[in-house]
């Protein structure tokens, strides 16, 4: 077996089962809480606040933080930048500039020394891979921070709209909590309703967005298909292709980082790209980057 083969060796069945359970059990717990609390601490109002907030702030991350600010997959106006930046900030994954710097560093060192959140490079064996999974999912937040990340984002630092939006991160986070609470207060007319709006449309929504987007770092570097040649473990994962609005087609993304479209096959659902295409139709997005069919075929992994 060559070094390249070892790099892309499929994780063991035990590792894949453990990672699957680590992802699905919290989702099952959230669904169970919704079912058990229906009519008591949950209703259609809170369901719409949860799902609506998940959709808007999740797309703020995928369309805004990731495809616009990080990879420049399309161009847009300052007001649209601010809107996408504010929605992404409400997901509470950090200010734009810090998030983008970390993600660009991830691409530069993907699954090698220097990658801030790779599940690999943590030793050999099942326990080492599980340790890597935890590190990639959320453990890396508690690791020593890399200094001078600004060198990865001179373009964003130089852009006034992005720089100001990033600095206003605490305001966006606060609004992301107060807005669902305010809507629930207006609908129910009670402070208990406002509290439940805060819990479901704010805190539970943040948990859901975090769990899904962090899974792109962890699951999508362990579990899935690799149709394209790359120097890392990035994989396409159907579950997170859907739940993460197209981000789960992660091997596609690492093969073509600047592409606004991650779901490169007709059946690979990519909600973020649909939104970008709609923005293009409405004149809100320009220079939308998509690789040609020839480039896609040239980069496919040998069978």
User: How would a crystallographer describe the biggest sheet?
Assistant: none
- Cα(first) to Cα(last) distance is 16 Å
User: What's the overall geometry?
Assistant: globular
Specify Rg, calculated over alpha carbons. Answer: 20 Å
Name the helix and strand elements from N-terminus to C-terminus, one letter apiece. Answer: HHHHHHHHHHHHHH
Q: Count the helices. How many?
A: 14
Q: Look at the structure and give the mean pLDDT.
A: 88
Number of domains: 1
Overview of the molecule:
The protein has helices spanning 3-7, 13-37, 44-70, 78-89, 96-108, 126-137, 154-157, 160-167, 169-188, 191-218, 238-243, 250-255, 271-281, 293-298. It is mainly α and 303 residues long. The chain has one domain (3-298). Helix 3 (44-70) packs across helix 4. The longest helix is centred in the C-terminal third of the chain and has 28 residues, at 191-218. The protein is globular. Mean pLDDT is 88; it is low at 1-9.
Concise summary:
This protein is mainly alpha-helical and 303 residues long.
Task: List the keywords.
303 residues, 60% helix, mainly alpha
Blueprint (SSEs and pairs):
Blueprint: H1 3-7, H2 13-37, H3 44-70, H4 78-89, H5 96-108, H6 126-137, H7 154-157, H8 160-167, H9 169-188, H10 191-218, H11 238-243, H12 250-255, H13 271-281, H14 293-298
Helix pairs in contact: 2-6, 3-4, 3-5, 3-9, 3-10, 4-8, 6-10, 9-10
């Amino acid at each position: 077996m060559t070094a390249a083969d070892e790099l892309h060796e499929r994780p063991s069945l035990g590792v894949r089962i453990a990672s699957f359970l680590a992802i699905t059990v919290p989702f099952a717990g959230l669904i169970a809480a919704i079912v058990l609390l229906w009519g008591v601490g949950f209703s259609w109002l809170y369901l719409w606040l949860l799902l609506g907030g998940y959709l808007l702030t999740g797309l703020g991350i995928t369309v805004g933080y990731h495809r616009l600010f990080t990879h420049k997959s399309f161009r847009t106006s300052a007001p649209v930048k601010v809107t996408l930046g504010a929605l992404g900030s409400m997901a509470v994954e950090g200010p734009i500039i810090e998030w983008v710097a970390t993600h660009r560093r991830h691409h530069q060192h993907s699954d090698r020394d220097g990658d801030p959140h790779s599940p690999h490079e943590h030793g050999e064996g099942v326990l080492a891979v599980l340790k890597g999974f935890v590190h990639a999912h959320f453990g890396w937040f508690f690791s020593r921070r890399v200094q001078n990340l600004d060198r990865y984002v001179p373009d964003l630092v130089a852009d006034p709209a992005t720089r100001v939006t990033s600095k206003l991160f605490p305001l966006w986070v606060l609004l992301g909590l107060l807005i669902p609470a305010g809507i629930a207060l207006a609908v129910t007319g009670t402070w208990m309703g406002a509290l439940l709006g805060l819990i479901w449309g704010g805190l539970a929504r943040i948990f859901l967005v975090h769990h899904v987007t962090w899974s792109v770092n962890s699951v999508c570097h362990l579990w899935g298909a690799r149709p394209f040649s790359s120097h890392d473990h990035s994989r396409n994962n159907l579950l997170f292709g859907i739940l993460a609005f197209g981000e789960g087609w992660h091997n596609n993304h690492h093969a073509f980082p600047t592409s606004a479209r991650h779901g490169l096959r007709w059946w690979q659902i990519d909600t973020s790209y649909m939104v970008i295409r709609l923005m293009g139709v409405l004149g809100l997005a320009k220079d939308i980057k998509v690789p040609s069919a020839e480039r896609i075929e040239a980069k496919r992994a040998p069978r």
